[in-house]
Amino acid sequence: MIKRTIIRVIALFFTSLIFAQSEIEVVDLQCEMLKNPLGIDVLDPRLSWRFKTSAPNIEQQAYQILVASSPAQLAANEADLWDSGKVQSAESLNVFYSGKELDSKQEAYWKVKTWTNEGETTWSEPAYWSMGILTYAEWKSTRWIGYNQLFPGDSLSQFSKLAARYIRKNIALEKPIKDAKVYIMGMGLYELYINGQKIGDQVLAPVPTDYTKNVKYNVFNVTDELSVGRNTIGSILGNGRFFAMRQEYKPYKIKSFGFPKMALQLVIRYTDGSSETIKTDESWKFTADGPIRANNEYDGEIYDARKEIPNWNEVAFDDSAWKNLTWVQEPGGFYEGQMTPNMKVKDTVTPISIKATKSGSYILDMGQNMVGWLQLRVKGTRGDAITMKFAESLKEDGTLYTANLRDARATDTYILSGNGTEIWEPKFVYHGFRFVEITGLSSKPKLTDFIGKVVYDDLETVGSFESSDETMNQIFENAYWGIRGNYKGMPIDCPQRNERQPWLGDRTTGAYGESFLFDNQTLYAKWLDDIKYSQTQDGGIPDVAPAFWRYYGDGVTWQGTYITVADMLYQQYGDVTSIKKHYPYMKKWILYMESNYLKNDLIAKDKYGDWCVPPESLEIIRSQDPSRLTDGEVLSSAFYYHLLKLMEKFSGVIDANPEDITYYQNLSERVKDAFNTKFLDKNKLVYANNTVTANVLPLAFGMVPKEFEQDVFKNMTHEIEVTKNSHISTGVVGTQFLMRTLTEFGRGDLAYTLASNKTYPSWGYMAENGATTIWELWNGNTADPEMNSQNHVMLLGDLMIWYFENMAGIKSDPEHPAFKKVIMKPDFNTGLKFVNASYKSGYGEIKSNWKRDKKKLSWEISIPPNSSAKIYVPASKNSEVKINKQPLDHLATTIVKQEDSLVFELPSGDYSILVN
């Protein structure tokens, strides 16, 4: 079956513009998998480009795209695949390919030119993509190979141990090679080699899925690695999520998939026009008696350098003693080209100290809670075992604090070969850690013996933020480290203990905030697929997707993430495709919840409540004080209303059946009426038991009757300021809407207080107590270790959104998504003295740098080409405002007075705004 889904093909190329000595940047933002995007498995990939110019007021009026099957044809403007012709359109993002139907493994070369209000551009330099394997039938003759048995030294238990499989195959190529691509599915994780050379710089590949539902393949161009004559293909298979994530342990809860396996096609085209495909079969050889003795994401990797196999992946190696692999059962899931990037080593960390302990071990401090692994440089005696145990913090006596890891052993072991200086790092595990206890060293180590490798999905950092408040700046830094550390081919909750699961509720709003820091579109588009594949036949959605844990709680606040993430993709990236693709399944869930749980137009079904509200005692995890807790029926019903309104919006976006819109409108009105009837106290003008969450949700969702809005808001702020002493009192659910709602109702100053607090409970309290990421609990340094991960992101709520949209004033207009039009409306009255922020949108970089004192406000902004902005300036008279040293009237044609601001629009360009 050929799929039509969200794909983002990337290519960065430049050419001069006629109207300015600058450039047009062809950038299909849809899949930054490799330098050139390979293995696209949809028929209509989307093409995008952005202008790179300092010229102001640039608006695209038309474009023309040429797509050809060879570079030569494209250079000659012979578009044998597609010539769009001159299309009158301002759209430069997400333009669907609409040419000839593309075949499997088809190559496509494309370029674009545009017409703007300033003239016609020249053609861009060519960009490129290639199609993947589009049908299951083309994979069918490629056999899955593996070894479904334990090898000596392997074991099955709660702490299963399985050595890596080393696989090889010699091949003979007799003709000159034009090009070659390899298509590989290596379960659970793989490294691929040709003639001893590692292919690609990815790690922990491919991205995880529920392998019974879908399996991702990677594609690499290996033309340069092959030569005429004998060649060797080699791979190492690690366990990943496929095997040994507590294999054979709690089978009622934890899903397992079997022993590692692989399917591979090497497609070679020769210069004489012929081709050859080399596939996995029973002739491939393997051994598990190599140096990687065990690899388990929870427990670590054991590497015995004495068992290294020199030149095992090269032609001259004698593999006669190796076993033949056998054909094994396929995983069961549909084969899909992986359109989101693999993980890579994205950064390095140098440790800041190393201290000896009384027991003779050493404690290494990285200075930063990070996710990845440690590279070791060591000399010693053959057979010496160096162990590295990882943790996020220390006990008071200076030893590792590991109680919060639960039963994750989080330990790597390296056994020395004794051959001089040895440098090692693991291949198939990662750890969440700041501290490492190192034992087994025969001499005192140096800091230079260790390098921390930071590992996460290869996503571009697109946002920056700095303000006059150092606490807020440190929180931003902590969020940056926490978010990227928990990107592991899917968004996980934590990287250190025996969990590391993609909980839906952690990203309900978090995904939106994260998008201001990282270009996370393909990650979350893939995650929507994970959720869809996890949906039950009757419509239920799990708490965790992929459903590695069989948790189907049928709540609303967690499961509704399916809908809110789709909305984020539309708002931030203009991604209509994800809405179209998932709309039937989201609707199925809406109907499922209505038919099973809607009673008297309200939903009482709730599993987790307002998870992790600050408890009354610093030593406990969950509050037992009823006054702090929000009724689950309030949470579920309010959230269900919010989701119904999003579905109503989606129906309009994709032009769904008009009956759908009527259904969502009618049902949402019924829910709102029932909600207000039951929970709105018209005497006190508060909701339910007057928790901040109980009030902020109906305020944020527009459920409060207009005549009561200000009173409800006033009573909510009284609860925050007086009862809670201007501190956070919300959990995961309430915090998702708290900061924006305070600001939108005129209390940005109170939101700023919450953001800059240093005392408990607050984000600043975490930073003041040494946090370099975001804790799972507001009291994560004192609560029972059963649940106090020091690297979670769920409590960020809408804080990062608030930083960018409300403090910096960088917000995409909902009526013109993907920042086609930017709403620039910072709250200048919070108490901050300056904010410097930037965000790289699909149209280019947006900047907002402002500084104010008692006399004036200076504001530097940049609006990217082919975009525009609605500007809100705090002034009452036009004469108080100058732009680029000119009176406001000279630049803005339409100026509207709204409350305490002047509002006007500006085209693309750089502007210096001064308000006296």
From TrEMBL:
Domain (Alpha-L-rhamnosidase concanavalin-like): residue spans on this chain: 356-456
Catalyzed reactions per annotation: Hydrolysis of terminal non-reducing alpha-L-rhamnose residues in alpha-L-rhamnosides
Residue ranges constituting the Alpha-L-rhamnosidase C-terminal domain according to the UniProt record: 809-885
UniProt record, GO biological process: carbohydrate metabolic process
One annotated GO molecular function: alpha-L-rhamnosidase activity
Segments forming domain Alpha-L-rhamnosidase six-hairpin glycosidase: 461-807
Listed EC numbers: 3.2.1.40
Keywords for this protein: Hydrolase
Domain Bacterial alpha-L-rhamnosidase N-terminal: 175-346
Keyword Hydrolase: yes
Name recorded for this polypeptide: alpha-L-rhamnosidase
